[in-house]
């Protein structure tokens, strides 16, 4: 829990759970789909209030932090930071692979962790991906879904953004107990890990969020729909969905960021 509280200010409102989502999805929302969304959002006034506060935090604190991160760290260093943090999250992914009965994926996770921790110098380099072992992540929210637990109603969490009761309990509750690093790292190291993870993730999704905001009639509704579609695709391990693997606010598992524009210029890695 200490990671969730301290790291929220960095991992938070950033991607709001829709990092790297295709903009066409936000533009192609149909009225029928919107009505389904409304039925799943019985506390919409409350959610919109939390969403507004998250947006303020993003504007005042998170985006400036991400811009500084992308501006002052060389692209190679940023890649290594992301790889290292992803490697640290592999034990949680492995536990959820096993709990879901995904033995092949669990085997891939074990091999990735072994290869990257050794040949990849502690995870600084994703040598496993170069050898054909693609990265994936799992959380206990997905595990609960595989076990048949429904998502429940749509819920916007302070700092962490789009969620639902199932994912809130799974991702931000159970996974903190599953993560072995919680029992070995000091509080300062845990806080550093969380803030760095959140900053690295937000730096990779800021442009996409800006585009969704500009092209959506209702930014809140667009993110709500994107989040639900994304989570459905993740639970199916990407099968039957038109979304790419989209990272959530699981702060230990950053995505590879797209270029972040600084003063109209693109600073690519």
Question: What kind of sheet is the major sheet?
Answer: 2 strands, antiparallel
Shape: globular
Instruction: Give the quaternary arrangement of the chains.
Output: single chain
Structural class: mainly alpha
Question: What strand order characterises the main sheet?
Answer: 1-2
* Total number of beta strands: 4
Number of domains: 1
The succession of helices and strands, N to C, reads: HHHHHHHHHEEHHHEE
Count of separate DSSP helical elements: 12
Q: Helical percent range?
A: 55-70%
Strand content: under 5%
pLDDT averaged over residues: 80
The low-pLDDT segments are 1-37, 240-269
What's the topology here?
Layout: H1 2-11, H2 23-27, H3 31-39, H4 44-72, H5 75-88, H6 90-99, H7 103-118, H8 127-130, H9 140-146, E1 155-157, E2 161-163, H10 165-178, H11 187-215, H12 219-235, E3 260-262, E4 265-267
Antiparallel strand pairs: 1-2, 3-4
Walkthrough of the structure:
The two termini are 32 Å apart. Helix 6 (90-99) packs antiparallel against helix 7. Strands 1-2 form a two-stranded antiparallel sheet. A two-stranded antiparallel ribbon has the order 3-4. It has helices at residues 2-11, 23-27, 31-39, 44-72, 75-88, 90-99, 103-118, 127-130, 140-146, 165-178, 187-215, 219-235, and strands at 155-157, 161-163, 260-262, 265-267. The radius of gyration is 18 Å and the shape is globular. 43% of the residues are buried. It has 269 residues and is mainly alpha-helical. It is built from twelve helices and four strands, in the order H-H-H-H-H-H-H-H-H-E-E-H-H-H-E-E. The model is unreliable at 1-37 and 240-269 (pLDDT under 50). The protein has one domain.
């Amino acid at each position: 829990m200490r990671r969730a509280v301290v790291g929220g200010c960095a991992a938070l409102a950033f991607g709001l759970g829709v990092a790297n989502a295709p903009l066409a999805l936000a533009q192609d929302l149909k009225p029928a789909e919107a009505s389904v969304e409304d039925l799943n959002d019985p506390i919409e006034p409350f959610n919109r209030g939390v969403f507004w506060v998250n947006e303020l935090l993003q504007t005042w604190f998170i985006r400036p932090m991400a811009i500084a991160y992308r501006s002052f760290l060389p692209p190679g260093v940023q890649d290594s930071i992301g790889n290292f943090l992803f490697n640290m999250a592999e034990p949680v992914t492995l536990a959820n692979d096993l709990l879901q009965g995904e033995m092949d994926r669990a085997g891939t996770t074990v091999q990735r962790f072994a290869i990257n921790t050794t040949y990849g110098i502690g995870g600084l380099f994703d040598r496993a991906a170069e050898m054909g072992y693609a990265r994936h992540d799992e959380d206990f929210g997905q595990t609960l879904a595989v076990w048949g637990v429904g998502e429940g109603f749509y819920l916007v969490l302070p700092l962490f953004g789009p969620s639902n009761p199932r994912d809130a309990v799974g991702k931000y509750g159970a996974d903190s107990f599953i993560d072995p690093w919680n029992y070995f790292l000091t509080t300062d190291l845990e806080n550093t890990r969380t803030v760095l993870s959140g900053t690295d993730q937000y730096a990779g999704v800021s442009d996409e969020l800006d585009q969704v905001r500009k092209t959506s009639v209702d930014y809140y509704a667009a993110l709500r729909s994107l989040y639900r579609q994304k989570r459905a695709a993740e639970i199916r391990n990407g099968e039957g969905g038109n979304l790419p693997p989209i990272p959530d606010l699981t702060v230990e598992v950053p995505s590879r960021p797209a270029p972040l524009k600084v003063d109209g210029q693109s600073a690519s890695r």
